[in-house]
Amino acid sequence: MNLRQLRYVVATADHGTMTSAAQALYVAQPALSRAVRELERELGVELFARSGRGVVLTAVGEQVVRQARVALDAVDAIEGLSVARANGRGGELRIATTSSLEPELTGRLIPRFARDQPAVRVRVVRCDGRDHVAAALRAGRADLALTDLPVPGDLAAHPFEQREVVLISPPALKLRDPVPLTALDGMRLVLPARGSARRAEIDAMLDRVGARVVPAVESDERGSWLGWVRAGMGSLVWYRNQIDDAEGLVVRSFMPPITRMIGLVHPHRHLPPVARDFLAFAKETARETRERKPH
């Protein structure tokens, strides 16, 4: 029995289906189902019974969930004491991330965190894709990670922000606004270089929407992308929050929207105090950002 299994059982009880519980925890549904089944085998009892399209707790399941809530609350309280005792102490914090999300860390989160915790040294562990981020966490090379969600069930996920993917085009390109996804077929695009992590990310995104595009420029010189768009060489598919200066260009949303949820991720084990401090800081930052957005 472990805390991850208890969290999954409580979430399933709260949400009524394993699919909804997995979505709420930002983990893969098969991983959650497998963990619940493993706990049932270990305990030798059935915790859930099917009811329509969802599940309901059995009598013994209700008892297990009741005790699981007590255990999880106690763990949270103990870890909170650890953070309180360590408040103000220095140390090193290692955060893994991908190349497309590194600017989020180095340009926004880390500088603000450093002002509050000047004694903490933050080191960024650069990874080529989400799988490598997970591997760095499992191997102990990083304490936390900023990455795409969902993640495998052996990792805990804390949603941070949802990002919108937009189309940046020269004014001469006449398109509907928002842009239908079908308009991407045959479109000339400025793309990251082949073989790079950024290119793999964009290719996967285009594959998901079934778009076949024409590479106009292929380069990892990110600072030049908008210049090539201004020169009329092609359009750019990228994240709205990572566009530095779109003056003279047209930025359009897609219909249906293309979004990406990112979050802070860590293994299901006790976090170092500085990692818990950063996690709490990131959650507060995300909350403030949401409150500032117009409704």
Account of the protein in words:
The chain has 3 domains: 3-85, Winged helix-like DNA-binding domain superfamily/Winged helix DNA-binding domain (Arc Repressor Mutant, subunit A); 89-161 and 262-292, D-Maltodextrin-Binding Protein, domain 2, CATH 3.40.190.10; 162-259, D-Maltodextrin-Binding Protein, domain 2. It is built from 9 helices and 13 strands. The longest helix has 28 residues, at 59-86. The chain is globular, with a radius of gyration of 22 Å. The model has no long low-confidence stretch (mean pLDDT 87). It is α/β, with parallel strands linked by helices and 295 residues long. Strands 3, 4, 5, 6, 10, 11 and 13 form a 7-stranded mixed beta sheet that branches. Strand 1 and strand 2 (54-57) form a beta hairpin. It is 43% helix and 25% strand. Helix 1 (3-15) packs across helix 4 (59-86), helix 2 crosses helix 3 (29-43) and helix 4 (59-86) crosses helix 9 (273-292). It starts with a helix and ends with a helix.
Give keywords.
295 residues; alpha/beta; Arc Repressor Mutant, subunit A; D-Maltodextrin-Binding Protein, domain 2; 3 domains; 9 helices; 13 strands; globular; transcription regulation; WH-like_DNA-bd_sf; transcription
